[in-house]
Amino acid sequence: MLSMKNISKVFKTDLVETHALRDFNLEVNEGEFVAVTGPSGSGKTTFLNIAGLLEGFTSGEFSLDGVNVSNLSDNKSAKVRNEKIGFIFQGFNLIPDLNLAENVEVPLRYRGMNASERKRRVESALEQVGLGARMKHLPTQLSGGQQQRVAIARALAGEPRFLLADEPTGNLDSLMARQVMELLENINQQGTTIIMVTHDSELARRAQRNIQIVDGQVCDFSMYQPAATGTR
Amino acid sequence: MLHIKPILSSLMRSKSAPVLLLLQIILSVAIVANASFIINERLSLMQRESGYAEDQILTFNLYNFDPAIDNMKQNQVDQQILRSLPNVIDASYSNMLPLSGSGWMDRYVDGPDADTAKSTPGFAFYLGNEHLLNVMGAKLIAGRNFTADEINTSLDDSGMMALVSQPLAKAFWGDESPLGKTMYQGEQAVTIIGVVDKLQGAWVDHENFEYSVIQNIDFGGSSSNKSYMVRALPEHIPALEEAISKALYAENPNRVVENFQTLTTIKNLTYSNHRLMATVLSIMVVLLLLITALGLTGMVMFNIQRRTKQIGTRRALGARKRDIIEYFMVENYLICIVGGVIGGMLSLVLGQQLMSLYSLPMVPVIYPIISVIGLLVVTTLAVIVPAAKAANISPAMATRSV
Ligand SMILES: Nc1ncnc2c1ncn2[C@@H]1O[C@H](COP(=O)(O)OP(=O)(O)OP(=O)(O)O)[C@@H](O)[C@H]1O
Ligand SMILES: [Mg+2]
């Protein structure tokens, strides 16, 4: 489903070169729920950005859904992001001037979907996250947890194959974090592949597979998963 | 596909900045529409054909201060001298100079009984001899010119004849020919013997500017101060000034020959206020559009700064670069069109006020429309560059920026 081989990513500034990822290798299968942990600055966001085609990489091979996406044009990668990938951000990234329905609608409009189909999907996505009754509200009228649920609805509305989440619970208290986690688990059970970066080891343990990024490289603990679960 | 609805509702929710810009656009359109109308009015006034051989006509003043001079005779002698100078095509006395801003105005009535007669509109009233038409370069389109023996020397003489300008003939007689009609100045009868294609008066802003009459009176003898018009090819005119002075002083030194001006110079002087007005207003229009453009660019740049993360997020969610550019274009076109419509209506109201205050003609609707179109062009130029910059914001800004 997602396959990265020897990916490296170097950030060059005037003074320094940062090797954010080096010889990064990862295979993620269809339907997996992968939690990514690692120290700050280890390259988690960089990995997720590359996985989500938000930025390019310096060398290596990357294929998504069996398609080599190493050298897609800007328009093509926008199309792939729009159709195959759902994003959930730490800061929710809702558009403050748009109400919830309009926010959820954003990726559907970029897909060129007609109005009635958009309406149907927006409603069902907001229902799914339990905010069907608040379509006309503005993001600022919601709690953080609710805002993150709107962001999840926005990601779901496009019915993506992948859900990429960068610390989706980072700005939430533990109760809300757990609600969001449950929502993600539900979504995963319906078949969506999820890759989630988190600092919360408790949440990470709930995922089916854990990988750790250290210094821009993967330490895959998936084989130790049973043991990790056992310690709980 | 243009996503107007969400852009509009987003605009409605963000308050101050678009409102200020909107106000600026409303005022710009209102002012630009009226100013460009006034500019165009002035330009079209200035561009009217005079019908005169402007650059071939040299005018000057002659003042006889010698009490021994018989003005009547001297006038005839002087005109002979002028006509006999080398390179002079023709020369004539005239009671007034075309386009000069000063002159005579009169009207005729169509019967001897003042109570029942119908009056012509007011017209510029030229008095001259059979040479005047040729000096002016005016074109006779019907009837005939005066002959030398038909020229009177006083307003009280009998046998008055007149050449009328075509616009005056149209205004008073319609499609009927004025030739042979007898008109009256008080008791005195005047016969219309010719129609001149174009014969402008002295006052360029007067509504009857095109209504003129030449009557067969060489009035030059009745005054010691008079003006003459001499026609010559433009290349001969500079040398003629000296030749004329020399010849006239040789005839009699007790007088002043002065104030040589071509009709072109007179016309330029007369229209100089209009030209100044058009220039000042044009500069104002350009400045206003520039300021509006700067305002637009400023707001777009400010919005791009403020929305870096939002733009990154939109890109992450599948917006192509052109979607981002489109967003800013549509957003600003919306402000521009709303502002343009309100400003356009305001300009009509403003125009109405100006109309009643300064008796200007009503601003035609086309001016606000053109102003709005002009503003759309300005908007495009002002927004496209920062918008293209916004489109280059990396999708990674969705996760990277705070
Ligand atoms: N745009 C950039 N320019 C230069 N260096 C960058 C850029 N983005 C990231 N880096 C560097 O790349 C490295 C990896 O950053 P990344 O954001 O992927 O870390 P992270 O694991 O997500 O950290 P955190 O847990 O704090 O979010 C860091 O050293 C960071 O400073
Ligand atoms: Mg990070």
Automatic annotation (TrEMBL), chain A:
Under InterPro entries, the record lists: AAA+_ATPase, ABC_transporter-like_ATP-bd, ABC_transporter-like_CS, ABC_transpr_LolD-like, MacB-like_ATP-bd, P-loop_NTPase
Matching Pfam families: ABC_tran
Listed GO CC annotations:
plasma membrane; transmembrane transporter complex
Q: Which UniProt keywords apply?
A: ATP-binding, Nucleotide-binding, Transport
The record places domain ABC transporter at 2-231
Q: Which family does it belong to?
A: Belongs to the ABC transporter superfamily. Macrolide exporter (TC 3.A.1.122) family.
Q: What is this protein called?
A: ABC transporter related
Lineage of the organism: Bacteria, Pseudomonadati, Pseudomonadota, Gammaproteobacteria, Alteromonadales
